[in-house]
Protein: Methylamine utilization protein MauG
Organism: Methylobacter tundripaludum
Amino acid sequence: MFKIRSLVTALALAGSVSVASAWDALPTQADAPADNPTTAAKVELGQMLYHDPRLSSTGTVSCASCHNTMLGGEDNRPNSMGVNGQTGGRSAPTVWNSAFNKVQFWDGRAASLEEQAAGPVTNPIEMGMKSWDDVVARLQSIEGYQKAFEEAFGKGTISKENATKAIAAYERTLITPNSPYDKYVGGDKSALSAQQVRGMEKVAELGCTSCHSGPAFNGPGTFQKFPVIPNGYWEAQHHFGKDKGLAEVSKKQADEHLWKVPTLRNVALTAPYFHNGSVKTLDQAVTLMAKLQLGKDLSKDEVADIVAFLNSLTGEFPKQKMPVLPGTPGSTFN
Amino acid sequence: MFKIRSLVTALALAGSVSVASAWDALPTQADAPADNPTTAAKVELGQMLYHDPRLSSTGTVSCASCHNTMLGGEDNRPNSMGVNGQTGGRSAPTVWNSAFNKVQFWDGRAASLEEQAAGPVTNPIEMGMKSWDDVVARLQSIEGYQKAFEEAFGKGTISKENATKAIAAYERTLITPNSPYDKYVGGDKSALSAQQVRGMEKVAELGCTSCHSGPAFNGPGTFQKFPVIPNGYWEAQHHFGKDKGLAEVSKKQADEHLWKVPTLRNVALTAPYFHNGSVKTLDQAVTLMAKLQLGKDLSKDEVADIVAFLNSLTGEFPKQKMPVLPGTPGSTFN
């Protein structure tokens, strides 16, 4: 794994901030767990499975439907639409750079990409399969998948475990390096505009980076309460209190309104914002985050500077080939 | 346009059929209309538009959702699922080789790919946009599309006409040559098995090729009545009478139950079958076509031979890159 760490200096160079912050470029590769080393055959199979709507009950919803690899890694909807037009209460997180998340899902309930990949397939309002046994039976009925699993894992290896491993292996390749920000911290001082540099300074000065730091702007911690500062008006406006985050899973009062700190990479491409997708623009998202997490009212210019900086986090998307999915024998969907 | 025509000979060689039939390999390129010459920039833009779910009201349905270019050019469903989980009464025809259709849609109501491309976008149960003005406004709000249209058509050219031209230009590249059948008629006599050759002979002998001939097996005519031979039992079983085909558009009695003769290319990948997707397997489709169009009861072996031959019509899918769709500013979808 390549990791470029630039202990900048950027702010010090800019001259207006007294503390030096660590600004990290995005690695171009992601570490894989010991039991799922990344191989070309797994990535190829994973790309097929990820884009295959036949992993849903209706044959209409693939992982890519909500986490679109042709777009910013999600669907630009407040809430995604699963099988039969159903919608849930949360906004799809981007798949780009999800390899760098410490936990997965908005509430962080999955510890790995492998674990995450198993979830939506059998969620009744997402992909709607009755069970993974049904998914495995469907994959087994498709000759081309028998071959693709054989190449990735060996003969007769179609299983939930291997399907989710392949999807995770593919997702680990979905990295968007070389953003203007990455070039800037790599030494190309012309990569950011003066406004973007002002926004970068402001992000550190305000304290945004106390939660959104590191190469993916999603650390150093894992979870954070939202909102930190109670605000009846905005909470009512956006129904922020309705969904209790991690507590919905853990059932612990201490976990109420705890959320995974999301990456800011490619954030300009992933409107609308927040866990319930209720915030339509990046301007509004920045304004609300400052108010509800840091207790600060930003000026219009400050918001514009920060948004300009956030736009510099849009990276280069890897060139991908379109997968060719193996044919379906007979009719499976109603 | 390259066109390989092989006046075969194949049947004569096989020795058991007295009339020589014309068996044509699939061209590798399709002619474009004079007012829409195919260019690389148009094809690139067309591929983006074709795969962009933001051309639908909900942001969830693209052309590719129902006419999937990763699969057999359709969705393997009896009826496709449009926005908000809605379904219609017809089965999505394959987009592969649709450039060689004389007319488009099951009822042939569109004379060209350009005309066809305009339809589903504003169909309330397909992509659900209120109007093309709304589509154009949405595309204009996306900076990357301004640039892509400029490259394909010139500055400030986002319009319904150009969007549908680009989509059609892309579709003209979706050709699947070099099937085993194509290799066989090109002279490679080992490309088909003995059973496939028997099936090929049977197809000519029965008269299937009186409607399904030519390189795409969809001519020489354009429309055909279905069923030709009334059969109360099977018509009731599959509700064939419910949809009146061309007459639904023309309102003429003479057009009742007239349908575009569909291509047989890649037919093994496009279950379920017939205009309403009510026939689940290719075996059953062959059996019913012989009975209802030709008045013949086929033996199990004859069906198996014909199905083996139809499997030889699965071609090579062109290598495609995954399009990178330009980002959405703010939130558009509810």
Q: What stands out?
A: Chain A touches chain B through 47 residues (CB under 8 Å). Residues 194-206 of chain A form the longest helix (13 residues).
